[in-house]
Amino acid sequence: MFRCRLPSLATTARRYASVPAASLRFGQPVYETHPHILKPGERKFSPPPCLTPGITAKEYADRRAALAHAMGEGGVAVLSAASLQYKSGAVFHPYRQESNFFWLTGWNEDEAVAVIEKTGPELGDYRFRMFVKRKDPRDEQWSGFRNGVQAAEDIFNADEARALGSAGTILPRIIESARLVYTDAAPDASRGMSSLSTAAAQRTLSSMFDGGSKLTALSPVMNKLRVIKSDAEVANMRLAGQMSGRAITEAMRRSWTREKDLHAFLDYQFISSGCDGPAYIPVVAGGERANCIHYTVNNDVFRDGEFILVDAGGEYGNYITDISRTWPVSGKFTPAQRDLYMAVLRVQRTCVSLCRESSGMSLDDIHAVATSGLEAQLRGLGFDVSMSNIGRLFPHHVGHYIGLDVHDCPGYSRREVLRRGHCVTIEPGVYIPDEEGWPKHFRGMGIRIEDSICVDEDSAYILTTEAVKDVDDIEALRS
């Protein structure tokens, strides 16, 4: 019997349900159907079971409790699942859940609405409802298994779950009684409610927007909750970083002729080493193409005497890692390559060391250190550079937050002082145009060195240390 019902944090009165695991097929992995993904130890009931790799059902319940506690009195949060995105016609992209929805529920299917209603002042005083697709054998024959309404209660711990079509009658009553409605499904007539794929749910949320005075943005509240990572989240990101770092180091061992071959190798290595897949389309740039920060066509060839710049990372349990490495096509640095590379590496190491709570610094503060450090390093190499024009060679920020998204918690300020549990990238770079005015032997070079970091109290916890970056280590891989 499959039993996965959790009591509320505030009460033990919630019921438990039993479901024969053999009688159900789910739309996402559980241990009984995918033991190769969720280990037996992750399905024990003390501690509670993992709904997704590494994240327990209790942690999801704690997250919902934290959101309810952060809302104002009488607050209701309404979230819609991401829509399935189509490449063309009936050809769809791999599904990716909306990050806030996933963080609160662990649910990884489209056509779903989650409602979290604050019911009292104490932590854990909330009610969790879900509106989801019914199981339908005919549809599942074509499009794969679904979790279904029963699983939303028995496995994902909704207090009440209904078929999505019933949202049209139930949601208005919930919204009418609310004092504040937290949502990011903004009323935009130009694009409609594209995050909900059923007309009934669209009409329901559209009616909610008629009472616009109740509306308040959900994302600022979610950003404050999500930006500090739990130990379990950091563990997932460390696994992603470890596997991704090893894949990139393995790529450095080999000689490459075409960018697309290296791209394909990285994708394969991420998956074969244990990641769910690549976290994003990688940058695989040879020579001067590295000066395009987001070069992703990856369709040219590598030439001897040039650098290879790779910006890539894998994903594990929907948590990502972000790594950039630069190395010579030949495997051996020329004197000019070594000088410019070491200038960036020195700055990167200085900035990584500042990713600790005790530094009292923010990402913006560290960016200022990176900018002044690169200016000093480049002047020492003969560049006519100052703080007024360093942005020509270093045009991007030194870092961003990471987590479920590559650029996690969008809108959360980089001016916030770093605290334990913040996870960030540190990625200084220099990009030298092939133009008069810059030292000739450096022209056309693009270098970026990036690690994913978890901030601790007195040190930086590097999540991607397996990706080598010392000059001697890189050269030794091909010797």
UniProtKB/TrEMBL annotation:
SMART domains: AMP_N
Molecular function GO terms recorded: manganese ion binding; metalloaminopeptidase activity
Ranges where the Aminopeptidase P N-terminal domain occurs: 55-192
GO BP of this protein: protein processing; protein stabilization
Keywords, in A-Z order: Aminopeptidase, Hydrolase, Manganese, Metal-binding, Metalloprotease, Protease
One GO term describing the cellular component: nucleus
Catalytic activity, as annotated: Release of any N-terminal amino acid, including proline, that is linked to proline, even from a dipeptide or tripeptide
UniProt enzyme class: hydrolase
EC number(s) reported in the record: 3.4.11.9
Pfam families for this protein: AMP_N (PF05195), Peptidase_M24 (PF00557)
Coiled-coil zones: none
Needed co-factor(s): Mn(2+)
Function: Catalyzes the removal of a penultimate prolyl residue from the N-termini of peptides.
PANTHER family: XAA-PRO AMINOPEPTIDASE 3 (PTHR43226)
Family, as annotated: Belongs to the peptidase M24B family.
Protein name as it appears in the record: Xaa-Pro aminopeptidase
